[in-house]
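Priority: medium. Attachment 1 of 2:
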């Protein structure tokens, strides 16, 4: 037995503050101790290395901290399949869709792979992507928008202006909250903090531009919006107008509404892709079926093909 092995046997628990020694793992002939860690600790250690600053990094932080709280055993030196299955089950019980679970598992997988590579943990579970449904794209008709926005306005003028801005720009909620005053000029607005990490600029409608004319102290027009409180006001408002049971009617539906109006209005799908900031055309193709009027011209062609030739012919 080596001196290191003897020392480990005599003192298996460390008081260094990084967790206890759980195993001794062999790397290249040397015995390396693997300490117990937590997801919170791994996040603090590798967050700035794995993710660039921006909205995605903020979302990942929220995801990992949620998973940290859901783990039955906070400290671990190996992340087992049972632990992974437990997290997925807990997320499902919270009402998370498979698509949402996949996003959270992608963040967890990336963090654990880094921890494994650095020797913080000594095994990894197999991550399997959950099957996602195509899903129903919910968008607001003009009458629904009028009623919903009126109910929201009775609760908060700021939330009302935010809804108008979101539905006329197609911005994500986080993009609007991150907006700064100098990001809007000459009738256009530029989103710098985006999901894809790529900035984009879109022109403003008259009413969207009006939402930015109110003088609000601070660095941005919507910086005081608390997402949780906004969603609570949204849910209360849709319940008030009789749509409380519509689970698809979430704030992101405003982005769907913007896209649907562009497609229905005859804007080609590639321009819609640029407007929304989708990385791939496939993401925008979800709205292509709304341009069904483009197929109307096919009907006369088919009808003429079935017409009987005249007697003179």
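Attachment 2 of 2:
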């Amino acid at each position: 037995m080596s001196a290191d092995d003897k020392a480990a046997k005599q003192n298996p628990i460390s008081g260094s503050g990084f967790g206890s020694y759980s195993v001794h793992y062999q790397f290249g002939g040397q015995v390396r101790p693997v300490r117990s860690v937590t997801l919170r600790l791994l996040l603090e250690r590798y967050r700035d290395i794995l993710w660039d600053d921006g909205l995605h990094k903020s979302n990942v932080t929220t995801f990992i901290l949620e998973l940290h709280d859901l783990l039955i055993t906070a400290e671990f030196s190996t992340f087992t399949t049972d632990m992974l299955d437990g997290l997925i089950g807990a997320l499902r019980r919270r009402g998370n869709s498979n698509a949402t679970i996949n996003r959270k598992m992608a963040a967890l997988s990336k963090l654990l792979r880094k921890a494994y590579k650095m020797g913080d943990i000594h095994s990894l579970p197999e991550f399997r992507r959950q099957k996602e449904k195509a899903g129903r794209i919910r968008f607001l008709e003009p009458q629904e928008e009028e009623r919903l926005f009126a109910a929201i306005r009775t609760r908060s003028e700021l939330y009302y202006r935010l809804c108008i801005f979101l539905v006329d720009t197609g911005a994500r909620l986080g993009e609007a909250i991150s907006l700064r005053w100098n990001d809007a000029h000459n009738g256009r607005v530029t989103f710098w903090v985006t999901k894809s990490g790529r900035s984009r600029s879109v022109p403003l409608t008259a009413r969207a531009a009006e939402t930015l004319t109110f003088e609000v102290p601070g660095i941005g027009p919507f910086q005081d919006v608390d997402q949780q409180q906004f969603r609570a006001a949204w849910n209360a408002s849709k319940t008030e107008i009789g749509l409380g049971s519509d689970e698809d009617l979430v704030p992101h539906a405003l982005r769907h509404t913007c896209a649907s109006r562009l497609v229905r209005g005859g804007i080609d799908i590639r321009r819609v892709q640029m407007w929304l900031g989708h990385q791939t055309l496939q993401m925008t193709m979800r709205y292509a079926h709304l341009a069904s009027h483009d197929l109307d011209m096919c009907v006369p062609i088919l009808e003429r093909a079935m017409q009987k030739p005249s007697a003179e012919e």
